[in-house]
């Protein structure tokens, strides 16, 4: 039987691994040797699950969206990660990794952030557990996600605006890695998605897998069966999607649909649709699909959404696409904005711009009336109100 899980060396098919500078070798090896032991220990599991329940507010609801279902001619359930404390799925991973960092004796936490949701989540957990926190964020994102910057500051984190490249997520990640190289002994780098060198993609997927664990139980209660016909999620680096599909990866009854950011269109120079446009390369320690020019230089991605404009993609997702286990659709800025308004007006839920991309994939699908669809709303749209209100839809 095919498996889509990671192997012992951190590869998903030909994607993944750990391509790191010598100076990080010790910390990545230390992490690799401790993460499974810690994540599977009873004391970690108890602390993690009680924080997810009492602090984050899990389980997040699985909500039958009646008016959206009517519109698309099937049964659509929304997995409401937007209702988590801090407003997105990112907190699941941040809690897990900061708990791990504490157990590894680290004192200082660093993180990169795009939309600011991972930065806010990490700053929140650092406040809760009394850890120093430094967040790298591209200057473009500092401007378009201003509210999240203020939240991080109030939580006690230091936010470093990054001015290299096009000043977005890739550049923030470069800076965080640079910091890590300078402080390898006392610093723990909390990566916010299923990217980076092994073991990060696997670790982040495991920490987010609570999403599909809950979907199984909740579908059983609602539908008397524990699997849907379709699972749908947006992909930036891939963490909310990984969490949504984790427990269904090898269940071929379930079709997986991923939405990446088309930007202004995949046939224009303004896109972040890495699975459509990328070629095999190495980015931030991982062998995966990378948007690059003919000389192998990484291209500047573009999306209206700060959380999706990354020129790489998690190795798990690159493999799912290569094996045709997942269907990947590119959803453009205007399609995402239209979909965000649609959900808001039909259901009274304002989604994050990132989540709006998977909603924008719905009109591209054709469902049967008996199909059960679970779509993850990865975050809420409060941080994106200015973008929504100022966008001129053609
Ligand atoms: C609400 C939300 N959804 C999705 C993403 C994309 O990240 P990932 O693909 O890791 O879920 C982000 C990233 O910032 C986000 O804030």
UniProtKB/TrEMBL annotation:
InterPro entries: Trp_synth_b_CS, Trp_synth_beta, Trp_synth_beta/beta-like, TrpB-like_PALP, TrpB-like_PALP_sf. SUPFAM superfamilies: Tryptophan synthase beta subunit-like PLP-dependent enzymes. It is an enzyme of class 4 (lyase). It comes from Phocaeicola acetigenes. Residues 57-379 form the Tryptophan synthase beta chain-like PALP domain. The beta subunit is responsible for the synthesis of L-tryptophan from indole and L-serine. The lineage of its organism: Bacteria, Pseudomonadati, Bacteroidota, Bacteroidia, Bacteroidales. The modification N6-(pyridoxal phosphate)lysine is found at residue 90. Belongs to the TrpB family. It holds the Pfam family PALP. PANTHER family: TRYPTOPHAN SYNTHASE, TRYPTOPHAN SYNTHASE-RELATED. This is Tryptophan synthase beta chain. Tetramer of two alpha and two beta chains.
